[in-house]
Amino acid sequence: MRILLFLEESAGVQTLRAAHASEHEVVAVLTSLHRTTSNRLGATVQGVAEHLKVPVWAAEQVKDPSFAERVLHESIDLILNVHSLHIVHKEVLSAARVGGFNLHTGPLPGYAGMNAVNWAIMNGETQHGATLHWMEAGIDTGDIAFETMFELSPQDTGLSVSRRCARDGLQLIKQLLATQPDAIPRKPQDLSARRYHGFEIPFKGQIPWASADLIERFVRACNFHPLPSPWGIPTVDFRGESIGLIEVAVTTEHCDTEPGSIHPREGSCYLAAADYWVEVKRILHRNHLAAPHEVLAN
User: How far apart are CA 278 and CA 57, in angstroms?
Assistant: First the structure.
């Protein structure tokens, strides 16, 4: 097949390498264009595509219905979208002979939309997954082609779950590439069970002092360190400085102190929730990861 890839982030890099190594022809990659292909955090989609001598086109073209003419001209069989946030115009999708597919970092229909990884942790889920689905005009509404689920642990963070989704998602993509077009599954979603999240952040990004358990889940959901967090880093003010919370733990000690107050003690540091004390394990101070006693205990 002749494939057109819409890719971003490290998952996009891995997808490009897998597609390029397959029996199919990668016609072009649409991604965010940068002036330089160097990136201290790792390879970019653009840089890897240029290294592999795959044409790179501007990502924004997918929103333009006239781009469908180029898809037809290039005889594209399959479109594959991984972590590109541009809404693909329906005429562009219909121009691909087989269709378009999107890798979603969450199970569908229960976690449609943005930041499914964050919401799964915030909601206290014990399982999460990745879904490769057919693309259509609606966001994350298309039939499911391939899907996978995995267990979540109480230690999982936004970063660890995101990486697991990317790793498992790559296997779904390889499964797609190894399947004959007329044999690709189409499992309709039960849209009555659909839950959709946009760019909203729970508690408007503020720490939920009403519950120690909510605080702990919110901090884990926001923790993508050292990568940027889509929800930002929860912060507390201490002696005129903003301290980022990277890791906390709920204690069994009931708290009768004003919620939101900070108490350095016993070589550590504790936050007062409305029900239990929360122990601070790791913080971000002046853009450096630190143990709380190094900064807050004095």
Answer: 49
How many Cα atoms within 13 Å fall on the side-chain side of residue 3? 25
pLDDT of amino acid 298: 55
Question: In percent, how much of the chain has pLDDT > 90?
Answer: 85
Query: How sure is the predictor about 38, in pLDDT bands with cuts at 50, 70 and 90?
Result: very low
Average of per-residue pLDDT across 222-245: 92
3-state class (DSSP) for residue 187: strand
Would you list the DSSP string of 147-172? EEEEE--TT--HHHHHHHHHHHHHHH
Query: 265: buried, middle or exposed (CB in 10 Å: 19+, 13-18, 0-12)?
Result: exposed
Which pTM value belongs to this model? 0.92
- Write down the pLDDT at residue 124: 97
CA distance to 199, 235, 242, 284, per residue, from 280 (Å): 28, 12, 14, 11
Contacts of 18 (CB under 8 A, 6+ apart): 170, 173, 174, 177
153: tokens are: 């642990």
- The CA distance from 41 to 44, in Å, is 9
Q: What is the DSSP letter of 86?
A: S
Q: Reply yes or no on whether the pLDDT at 157 is more than 90.
A: yes
Domains and CATH numbers, the chain: 2-197 (3.40.50.170), 206-295 (3.10.25.10)
Which residues are CB-contacts of 268 (< 8 A; sequence separation ≥ 6)?
Answer: 279, 280, 292, 293, 297
**Which pLDDT score, from 0 to 100, does residue 40 have?**
44
CA-based end-to-end distance of the chain: 64
CB atoms within 10 A of CB 92: 27
As given in the structure block, the two tokens for residue 204 are: 């408007």
